Amino acid sequence: MVRGGSILFIAALVAPSLAAAETMSFSDSAALLAKSCAAEITANCRGVNFDANHLKECLSRNQDALSPRCRSDYLRSFDAIQKRVAARTAVANACAREIVKLCAGSTKETSKSVPCLTTAQGVGRNCLQAMDDAGYR
How far is 111 from 109, CA to CA, in rounded Å? Predict the structure, then answer.
């Protein structure tokens, strides 16, 4: 009984770190933003380029006009976008050995090696995790 409780306790401690490694896709982030903030974007951000930086700046500048749902979801959405971008950047570091040895590629052009990395045999655990976090697999 104590052993089972210890295993559950350890699993509870590890689970948040595993969930934190996952990132929301770009399309899911955009869908969340559209669902929660469409009216606010239309009313307050007319004429603003719809790239992440300009849109986040517009919504931040107009926080007084945002609904509570939009206010919480837009921060979550942009945070998810930043995490996904960082995860894609991390692939070059986590997969440097595999890119060079298994895919005969260059770490300066990681995106060209992604198709190879997803199918190659012998890709390391850290590389696989980085590719999962980046949404490549």
Answer: 6
- Three-class secondary structure assignment of 71-128: HHHHHHHHHHHHHHHHHHHHHHHHCHHHHHHCCCCCHHHHHHHHHHHHHCCCCCHHHH
Residues in the chain: 137
pTM (2 decimals)?
A: 0.66
pLDDT tens for the chain, residues 1 to 137: 444 333 333 333 333 333 344 578 888 998 999 999 999 999 999 888 878 888 899 999 999 999 999 999 988 998 998 898 899 889 989 999 999 999 988 878 888 899 999 999 999 999 999 999 998 88
Structure tokens of 124? Answer: 């390391």
Using alpha carbons, select from 44, 48, 50 the residue that is nearest to residue 66. Answer: 44
Torsion over CA: 31, 35, 36, 42 (sign):
positive
Contact in structure between 118 and 131 (CB atoms under 8 Å):
yes
Taking the CB of residue 6, how many other CB atoms lie within 10 A of it?
10
| Helix or strand holding residue 35 (H, E) | helix 26-44
Return the structure tokens found at 2. Answer: 């104590």
